[in-house]
Amino acid sequence: MRTIEGDRILLSASDLMRFMGCAHATALDLAYMRGTGPVPREDSEDAALLQKQGDAHEAAHLAKLRASGVSVIEIARSDLADNARETRAALAEGLQIVFQGALLGDNWGGWSDFLERVERPSDLGPFSYEVTDAKLKRRPHPKHLLQLVLYSDLLTQVQGVAPEFAHIELGDGSRARLRLADYQAYARMARQRLEAFLENPVPTRPTPCADCALCRWGDHCEGQWQAEDSLFNVANITRTQVKKLEAAGVTTMEGLAGLDQPVRGMAETTRARLVTQARLQHARKTGAPDFELRELEPGKGFGLLPAPQPGDIFYDIEGDPHYEGGLEYLHGVWFDGQFKAFWAHDHGAEARALAELLDFFRQRLAAFPEARIYHYAPYEITALRRLTAKYGIGEAFLDRLLRERRFVDLFAVVRGALISSEASYSIKSMEAFYGRVREGEVKTAGGSVVAYERWRETGEQSILDEIEDYNRIDCISTEELRDWLVSIRPDTPWPVLAADASDKEVEEDADTQALRTKLTASGLPQERQDMLFNLGLFHKREAKPAQWAVFDSAGKDEDDLIDDLDALAGLEAIGPAEPVKRSTLRRYRFPIQETKLRAGRKATVPVIDGPPASVSIEELDRSLRIIAIKAGPGKSHLLADRLTLHPDWPLNTGVIAAALRDVIADQCGARRLTALDDLLARAAPRLTTGPRADLLDGADPLTGTIAAIAAMDGTVLPIQGPPGTGKTYVTARAILSLVRQGHRVGVASNSHEAIRNVLMGYLAAQGDGDPVPGLCIGHKVGSGEDGYLDDCTGVIRSTANDDSLWSRADVVGGTAFFFARPEHEQAFDWLFVDEAGQVGLANMVAMGRCARNIVLVGDPRQLPQVIQGAHPNPANLSCLEWMLGDHPTIPPDRGIFLPVSRRMHPDVCGFISRQVYEGRLVSAPDTAGQAVRGTNYPTAGAFWVPVAHEGNAQIAVEEVAAIQATIDDLLSGTWTDKDGPTRALDPSDIIVVAPYNAQVNALQDALSAVIRVGTVDKFQGQEAPVCLVSMTASSVEETPRGMDFLFSLNRINVAVSRAKGLALVFGAPRLREAKCDTVEQVQLVNTLCALPEIGEF
Asked: What is the pTM (predicted TM-score) of this model?
């Protein structure tokens, strides 16, 4: 940021990136530039070093280009305006490379690294240019995108045509090619906001954010918080909590320390903890470090701290998130006064270091059977879980250590045991209580990463020595913290190790080794061996995180679990337990929170010195916040007066895993299952009519799809059906066509609801034409309500796996648990898999042996599959994702893309098509007449409606009010359908979608019961003239499930595409201002930014 031509401000990409992270930093920049503000701290030596290294990387790429013989012209950097004129002249000459080309337009300018010629006509001639930057990082970063889009837009002004792509020469020698349309809306909107801010600055305040540690204004803001006695100084306080306290008139830490009144919307336990935290910190300003012990709670705090044992190990990891794919570059252990380091400088060494570390643990624990492994905070365990799954090393041994409760997280002990006077609960802050003073160049984890990146460029051994010393001190400090905690520990029973799990480790290792041995002996290509190996371990790897999550959740503090969707925290009994047959039922009230738990499902509750026990959720009323829980015979003690529910144990997938091993055996031998062989090979469909460049071959989607399915010859056929393209309609009629020819057909999916939808569609297809007499349709349903109407007799339902119905039915529906059973091998001619974008590849391979042909119907661009484990590619993919590969839409020779939406108006469809489907999706012509008229809103299209609010996470009353007002306006208007008639809009014509159940409940309370309200999962397959979408969270920082969930392109696609005519997305402006950490996140936010804006609430 600098002034030119008087008061005119020239902006750069770095100014934009800083503004995206913190507008207050930009306000301070502006004041400093004008001489009216404070002076920032100087850039660090590390920043200067990185700049120097960046220049060297750029020079190396330039030398490579010149050595290759391409024509290069270099613009000697001087005055930006003069250089911009020179660059225009150089571009007109048509040379292949312009180095350091200057671009200037309006208030923006800068020097690009390289402008590369492409053979695409422009005002310059039969060619044009695209921007390429050289960057040290090993993968593209959002700030690169902001710069590339800026320079590409400035380049457009010169050549008269917009570049389609931009490029990055990365630090590892690779080259990234980026489609600008995926990022332009986000980058351009960011520039507009910065320009508006500079033209009319609004008051800002310093608010803690992820950039504070590296910001040049960090010291200034910290001083302001201290001077104001800000609530942000309170340890572990959240922005949402600050908002609630400020609304209650509490604006300082001193005020919070004296607060003795309830706070609206805040749990009493949370208020009490924050008050104590503030009181201790406030007193700390004039006194020594202090703490207060929290009330003892079984399985929390001191209940997690074991007695010291001979051989105890103290462990710490240093990791580099900037290395491509991440790198855990140092594992350090402290034991018996000795330190041992396990270094890794690439992924191969990372695997070796992991193996050596786990071998050290094994030998140490064999010598000291009662020893524990202490660490601070969850990072070490998270990293070990990820690494063991990534490399297939020590998975069973790590699982054994976790089962035996060998790891002790002292952070969990501290958080549950005491409230500290320090402003942070980092181990560095806790050192105030046991007298450790840090020395050395490296003093923080962030400093370790910066130092390590510096070593990677310089190779100086002294840097590694400093990092190792920092890690050693961390390990020693962990032991000192453990000893201090033992010294203040109240008299309470010590936790003990869980039962020896070595037998399970031996069994699992033997199974894994047997699988690897079988594959090695098969002679299959190594890529296929690795694929089958990882698929074969999928269910084991998938179950482990679910098992670990049960234990992890049970050890967390209640305040942390309030925002954990897998738990339900702070339950308080509202009556005594009641006997129900041989079981016991008790009702509880719970605080406002979002949860995935549902009535009819199970959860777990902690058990002292034992694994958590399962209980049943009999009732769950989210509006009244009342839950009824049932414990089985002899378990009434589980229903305590105060309770927290944790995730349930994972389902037993043994039948699916066994089928998968049988398929692997077939792959290692005769390879009889040709459809599965094609699936694993991602082969083009094999048809009796021969290969085709376009499987539809010019036919209409219905006729062409039915013909292609009938021509399948022991193969797999992917069918991608975007919203409104009639996937179920086409599927049902294809099944009917096959049944008429005497074929048996299976219908599978993850959910019985999806299966029921296809079977009912099949019945409807029969009704539309000549019914086939004597046909039998069966559905293997689960226990409980099956969802069919009472008078539905066309589908026979059974819960029994051995029902004779399955051998005689012509069409059978079931999940993978049914079709994977051995008696169904090759029992069907065709298997249709609905919602295949949500069906995992491993499950598909397991159940696919039941049929000679497999049809995958779905859309991976809508709701994705849900997995918990860390799985190597392609075991982490759904079957349809696997078949599509890197393509957003299925290529015409590899499958069928249903191209016509019969639901959406062209203006809604156009937005969805551009953002999601590469422009291949079009509306049926008759949808152009669909319109909402007589309201204050457009007649059709998809739009963004900004609603101002702050600090909201799971409920936004402001959006509820805005949606309510919008509905009132809409109901005064009319709806014209595709077939012509116009009528008054009715409440049933409106769908309202929200991401969180808490917001769904708030909307349901405020709106007519006729209006359909729910999460996006509820509405897949449904439609309405109008769809209103509530984004709810005020910002990325507030969203409880993270950016990837709230901004999910799949979910936005499903939500907006429910609308036949008008889609309105309501959200806080800050959502479109989100600071992104990855280019994938930029692409997600770009979708919202691409929505045209109307109105404001």
From this structure: 0.81
